[in-house]
Specification:
Rossmann fold; 581 residues; GMP Synthetase, Chain A, domain 3; 5-stranded parallel sheet; 7-stranded mixed sheet; 27 strands
């Protein structure tokens, strides 16, 4: 299907009226748990129109994760869908949402209303023509993954339904007015809450406001992608993450951009899916993740080269540092050495791009995020809090605020100050390591704190450890990162068992399932190793630095004199999992 800006406005006004009819007012929190469908964009913009604060939860998260976010922000209403397909896998989203709502009710926070989009239960017809056929209309395109003939062969799941609480989106929209007076908001009024993993194991509700965030998303989109009126732009991210907020919804729409909204995965029904969409809609600016690039690299050049891709002008990467090999493949094979690559570094907390090339203006270095965006002043600090000049490596920090900076962590301003400003007072601390070369280019070296970047998704080691400890057989757990050829990093877990339990393949599978159910599929460990005990300091702190070395079979351990049990190290090396990927 395709939709114009005028049509989108009318639908946004209709749903804004629906929300007002359900008692939603300025400052209320609304949880949105939807796949990549047009109603997700409509719901976000409808919240913004009436001053409500939206909290989008990635549709790949579990019931526990959704419940935790509902409770933390105290939302008054949930918006979800019946079900959707991810590739050929059915996800019964309503069932997961119901589990989350029951858990919320059990914890004393019952929601009174759940609005459900009839997604699988409606006829879906993909757009036949490319958006670029009518540039003046600035069409927002949604490429629906399943065609009618394919959809008719699929079995629709049984959707749980409570008529006292559940109501169909389509029924509410049918009688709603297409005119809705907007709620006037101050530039510092709240726009949305988006949760990101925290080092304590509890997700942090990053809060962005109306004026600064909108300005930064719009400005960075325009200049980083060099957006022009005739362009067709496509970002493959999920709106459940900050990339989808800033560079699918707010940034492009604020610029009147023609965009493609994609529901699907890069390899379904085949490895040429992305390139066929680029040809179909004549996409000129393409933004995706290094994980997707590495996955498609594995499929070879043939699926790429059987499509022309002649429309492409700019390529972009987001979510994690891109390795030079993947960067060069992207540049040479996908872009045919004619498309500049904007390798962007930023965070949920920053709201928009912080370090990035500008296309055709910044000389590129494969794997480098290059230089700061307008108004961004980075610095590199050592452990002692000294700012390093010239060639250097250390903590990446920013020396002054920018419009898109988060304003607080929802309900916990003290944690906001402690997490981002306490280590180096007067500086915003990213939590990432960084190297600056002799030419002044910045290279992100990875997380320094207890966080993992798996396929561009930030995960807390504490959160995964907490999920493992929820199993009755586990007495202790420690999680570290391990290099992965597709994901960048994956999870390598060490577990110590309670007396009376044996470590078996069945137990390892149970533990992986436990993590999937508690957090979501993205957090599933690749490796789980039995550890009779974990290396600890005399104060009882687990030395994850040593465990990372063991996971990577690196025996250059450095100083281990502070360990209370150094004898365990050799046994852990000998019992390592087979890490050939």
């Amino acid at each position: 299907m395709k939709i114009t800006y005028g049509e989108l406005l009318r639908k946004v006004c209709q749903f804004a009226n629906v929300l007002r009819n359900h008692g939603v007012k300025k400052g209320d929190r609304i949880s949105i748990y939807l796949p990549m469908i047009l109603e997700l964009v409509i719901a976000m913009l409808a919240c913004a129109r009436i001053g409500a604060i939206h909290s989008v939860v990635f549709a790949g998260f579990s019931a526990d994760s959704l419940c935790e976010r509902i409770l933390d922000c105290g939302c008054s209403l949930l918006i979800t869908a019946d079900a959707f397909y991810r590739g050929d896998k059915l996800v019964n989203l309503k069932q997961i949402a119901d589990e989350a709502l029951q858990k919320s009710k059990d914890k004393g926070f019952p929601l009174k209303k759940c609005i459900v989009v009839k997604h699988l239960g409606r006829e879906e017809v993909a757009a036949d023509g490319a958006c670029s056929q009518s540039p003046p209309l600035k069409r927002l395109c949604q490429d629906v993954q399943e065609k009618k003939t394919e959809s008719s062969q699929r079995l629709h799941p049984k959707i749980p339904w409570d008529p006292r609480m559940d109501v169909w989106w389509q029924d509410l929209m049918s009688g709603a007015s297409t005119e809705c007076e907007p709620e006037w908001c101050d530039s510092e009024d709240e726009l949305f809450i988006l949760y990101t993993s925290g080092s304590t194991g509890k997700p942090k509700g990053v809060l962005h406001t109306v004026g600064g965030y909108m300005l930064y998303a719009a400005t960075s989109f325009k200049y980083v992608f060099d957006y022009q009126p005739e362009d067709v732009y496509w970002c493959t991210a999920d709106i459940g993450w900050i990339t989808g907020h800033s560079y699918i919804t707010y940034g492009p729409l604020a610029n009147g951009a023609t965009s493609v909204l994609f529901e699907g995965i890069p390899t379904y029904p085949d490895a040429g899916r992305m390139w066929s969409i680029i040809d179909k809609y004549k996409v000129t600016k393409f933004y995706t993740a290094p994980t997707a690039i590495r996955l498609l690299m594995k499929c070879g050049e043939e699926p790429v080269k059987k499509h022309s891709r002649k429309s492409l002008k700019v390529l972009g990467t987001v979510g994690e540092p891109i390795n030079p090999e993947a960067w060069l493949w992207y540049y040479r094979v996908v872009g045919e050495e004619r498309c500049p690559i904007v390798d962007t570094f930023w965070q949920t907390e920053t709201g928009g791009h912080m370090l990035t090339p500008l296309p055709a203006a910044t000389p590129m270095k494969p794997g480098s995020a290059t230089f700061p965006f307008f108004g961004v002043v980075p610095a590199i600090m050592n452990e002692s809090g000294e700012e390093l000049e010239g060639e250097a490596e250390g903590y990446l920090v920013f020396k002054q605020p920018w419009p898109g900076i988060m304003r607080t962590l929802y309900g916990n301003h003290q944690q906001f100050e402690t997490t981002y400003f306490k280590k180096f007072p007067g500086y915003y601390v990213t939590g990432d390591g960084c190297r600056r070369d002799k030419d002044g280019y910045y290279w992100i070296t990875g997380r320094i704190d207890d966080m993992l970047n798996v396929s561009g998704h930030l995960l807390s080691t504490a959160e995964v450890e907490s999920a493992l400890l929820g199993h009755g057989a586990v007495s202790e757990a420690a999680v570290v990162s391990h290099p992965h050829p597709l994901k960048g990093e994956c999870l390598y877990c060490f577990v110590t068992l309670k007396d009376g339990h044996d470590f078996t393949k069945n137990l390892a599978d149970e533990l992986k399932k436990q993590v999937r159910e508690k957090i979501g599929p993205i957090a599933t460990p690749d490796y789980i190793q039995y550890a009779p005990s974990l290396p600890k300091t005399r104060s009882g702190k687990i030395t994850r630095r040593i465990l990372r070395k063991i996971a990577q079979n690196d025996r250059d351990l450095g100083d281990i004199s502070t360990l209370v049990n150094p004898g365990i190290i050799n046994q852990l090396f000998n019992d390592r999992c087979d890490t050939k990927l």
